[in-house]
Amino acid sequence: MPAHEISEKHLFCNALNTYLMEKFNYKTSCTSSGLGVNVNARRHKFDLYIRIFELGNQYWGGKALVISRIEFNKTRQGHGSELLSFISDFAQEHQYDVIGIEQASTSSIHSFAEKHGFIRLENSSNYSVPVEQITTKTAQL
């Protein structure tokens, strides 16, 4: 990749940062891009960890954005659904194939995944949904 091109991971990190700063009225940066494929966003109001597979991933079924951790200090306020809509818009704009949820460990995450049309992957606590399906589903909510 030429030096002047920004990776999709950094584009996503910047877009997520702008989204979170506007939504939660923060004045300073909320996100950081970690090693490899990871983007982290942590503040008092939220804790997010997202993996970006720009080149595709066989397990997830293609180019994927995967939510590894999603926590908000105020639950049942629509923050997760709004974040999913943001992720879905980015995924569609940048031609991602799938959105995933990794290691869904609580009943609320399972309910969230199922509400938004995610399908549980065989023999795991992971969920995925094709981008075109999640885009339609989030528009209906």
Concise overview:
The protein is of the alpha+beta class. The protein is built from four helices and seven strands, in the order αββββαβαββα.
Which structural traits does this protein have?
4 helices, seven-stranded mixed sheet, alpha+beta, Aminopeptidase, 30% strand, 141 residues
Walkthrough of the structure:
36% of the residues lie in helices and 30% in strands. The protein has 141 residues and is an alpha+beta fold. The chain has one domain (8-140): Aminopeptidase. It has a 7-stranded mixed beta sheet with strand order 1-2-3-4-5-7-6. β3 (46-57) and β4 (62-72) form a beta hairpin. The N and C termini lie far apart (39 Å). The model has no long low-confidence stretch (mean pLDDT 84).
Fold topology:
Elements: H1 8-24, E1 31-33, E2 38-43, E3 46-57, E4 62-72, H2 79-93, E5 98-101, H3 107-115, E6 119-120, E7 127-130, H4 131-140
Parallel strand pairs: 4-5
Antiparallel strand pairs: 1-2, 2-3, 3-4, 5-7, 6-7
Helix pairs in contact: 2-4
Counted up, domains total 1
Work out the number of β strands.
7
Number of helices: 4
Please name the CATH architecture: 3-Layer(aba) Sandwich
Indicate the overall shape: globular
How does the helix and strand content classify structurally? alpha+beta
Low-confidence stretches: none
Mean pLDDT: 84
CATH class: Alpha Beta
Q: Which sheet architecture does the biggest sheet show? A: 7 strands, mixed
Percent strand: 25-35%
Rg calculated over all Cα atoms: 14 Å
- The CATH superfamily turns out to be Gcn5-related N-acetyltransferase (GNAT)
| Helix content estimate | 25-40%
CATH topology: Aminopeptidase
